[in-house]
Amino acid sequence: MKVLSEKARISIRTDAKLKEDATRVLAGMHLDLSTAFNLFLDQVVKQNKLPFEITNETAAEKEQRALHLAIQTGLAEAKAGKGIPAKDYLASLEAEINQLEHESL
């Protein structure tokens, strides 16, 4: 027999626009604020931490960091002799473009 847990009421203050925006986004996921908040609390308990990373990093900074990492990885691979020379790569791209143009005729 399943025992129903006692319900508790929580009252929070938040920005009106934030609530409106969150309600709209959650509605697109077929969730209401109460259900989403309960999911959040459930994950806090299960993970024993916030279920997301808190950062001051903007989206642009995150993209810049990812680009920097990709460049550093590419340089390391080039120094290790991995990859192909640029002229060979460009020639393969040109051949592929020519083939696509020929197929579309």
Automatic annotation (TrEMBL):
Mind listing the GO biological process terms from this record? DNA-templated transcription; regulation of DNA-templated transcription
UniProt keywords (A-Z) are: Toxin-antitoxin system
- Which Pfam families does the entry link to? RelB (PF04221)
Q: Quote the Gene3D superfamilies the UniProt record gives.
A: Met repressor-like (1.10.1220.10)
The signal peptide stretch is: none
**InterPro entries for this protein:** Arc_rbn_hlx_hlx, RelB/DinJ
The entry's family comment says: Belongs to the RelB/DinJ antitoxin family.
| Name of the protein described by the UniProt record | DNA-damage-inducible protein J
- Recorded source organism is Loigolactobacillus bifermentans DSM 20003
